[in-house]
């Protein structure tokens, strides 16, 4: 039963990794197009600035996790590739990029909340270029404080021959348990609860107060897109919490689940926004030579102007 489960888990991770590597160029092209389109409405708004940086964090996380955690499991790197004196780097990098993603998701949720509840202040007072730049600095600087404690203890590299799992465990078992449990609580409970409340308030407001002028309303689709991306992060937080409660030698049970969900999260920003938003999809395909640019009208569309 255990061997069969391991075979299935490893197969799923192989498939997940392969799909992620295929989607990686799409994510990179998505970021490139958002940067190219950044001076055209609605791509010149804070929402899309936040999307650019969240997508960059997703790309970096995908590349980093593949290089340092997946390739060794697949036998690409020998055991000696990981040295005790720098084995903290992979786990520190994951913590940094994971929290950069978390702050990106939080700021996008706040952006959608203010756009729906306070559209005038959102557009004219709150989401100024200066505020947006400040939030982006917070997104990339604050995660340093989350990973900093990792450099005050030694880490050892664990490789499970049975499961192929790559695990980094602190030499101090108490530190390992307390740190990762605290991070799992922050990520899996605190952040997810705050963001879930924000999206709950958004959809209640839309349902009870906002009159949608047409089914293809971009602003509402952006809120739905951001919510779906958050659901992926919510699932990742659950896996993090379960993993933190499991002793390092047995953490392989949730390792595969975590990395599969992480693959979904890292690829969700670009794919969800493209799938649910026709104007974004047209801009994307136009750069591939499929459509010609016709622009996105914001006339008489207050919700879209509040993007």
Name the CATH class: Mainly Alpha
What integer value in Å does the Rg equal?
Answer: 21 Å
CATH-scheme architecture? Up-down Bundle
Number of helices: 11
General shape: globular
Stretches where pLDDT is under 50 for at least 5 consecutive residues are: 212-216, 291-305
Q: Say how many strands there are.
A: 2
Distance from N terminus to C terminus (CA atoms, Å) equals 51 Å
- N to C succession of SSEs: HHHHHHEEHHHHH
Largest sheet: 2 strands, antiparallel
Could you say what the CATH topology is called?
A: Rhopdopsin 7-helix transmembrane proteins
Average pLDDT rating: 79
CATH superfamily: Rhodopsin 7-helix transmembrane proteins
Describe this structure in words.
By secondary structure, the protein is mainly α. The chain has one domain (33-279): Rhodopsin 7-helix transmembrane proteins (Rhopdopsin 7-helix transmembrane proteins, Up-down Bundle). It has helices at 2-36, 46-73, 88-117, 119-126, 129-141, 143-147, 173-208, 218-244, 252-276, 278-287, 302-305; strands at residues 155-159, 166-170. It has a two-stranded antiparallel sheet. α2 runs antiparallel to α9 and α8 (218-244) packs antiparallel against α9. Keywords: Membrane, Transmembrane, Transmembrane helix. The chain crosses the membrane at residues 14-35, 47-69, 89-114, 135-159, 179-206, 218-245, 257-276. This is G-protein coupled receptors family 1 profile domain-containing protein. Residues 26-245 form the G-protein coupled receptors family 1 profile domain.
């Amino acid at each position: 039963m255990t061997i069969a489960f391991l075979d299935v888990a490893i197969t799923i991770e192989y498939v997940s990794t392969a799909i992620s590597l295929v989607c990686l160029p799409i994510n990179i092209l998505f970021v490139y197009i958002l940067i190219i389109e950044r001076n055209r409405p609605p791509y010149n708004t804070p929402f899309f600035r936040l999307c650019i940086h969240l997508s960059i964090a997703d790309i970096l996380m995908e590349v980093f996790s593949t290089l340092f955690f997946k390739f060794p499991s697949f036998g690409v790197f020998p055991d000696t590739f990981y040295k005790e004196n720098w084995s903290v780097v992979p786990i520190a990098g994951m913590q940094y990029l994971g929290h950069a993603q978390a702050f990106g998701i939080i700021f996008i949720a706040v952006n959608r909340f203010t756009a729906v509840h306070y559209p005038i202040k959102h557009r004219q007072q709150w989401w100024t270029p200066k505020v947006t730049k400040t939030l982006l600095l917070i997104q990339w600087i604050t995660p340093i404080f989350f990973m900093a404690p990792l450099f005050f203890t030694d880490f050892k590299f664990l490789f499970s021959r049975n499961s192929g799992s790559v695990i980094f465990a602190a030499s101090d078992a108490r530190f390992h348990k307390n740190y990762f449990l605290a991070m799992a609580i922050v990520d899996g409970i605190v952040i997810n609860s705050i963001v879930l409340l924000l999206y709950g308030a958004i959809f209640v407001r839309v349902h009870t107060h906002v009159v949608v002028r047409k089914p293809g309303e971009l602003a509402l689709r952006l809120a739905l897109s951001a919510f779906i991306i958050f659901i992926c992060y919510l699932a990742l937080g659950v896996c993090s919490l379960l993993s933190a409660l499991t002793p390092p030698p047995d953490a392989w049970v949730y390792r595969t689940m975590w990395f599969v969900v992480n693959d979904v999260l890292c690829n969700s920003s670009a794919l969800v926004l493209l799938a649910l938003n026709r104007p974004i999809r047209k801009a994307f395909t136009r750069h591939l030579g499929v459509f010609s640019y016709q622009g996105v009208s914001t006339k008489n569309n207050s919700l879209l102007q509040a993007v």
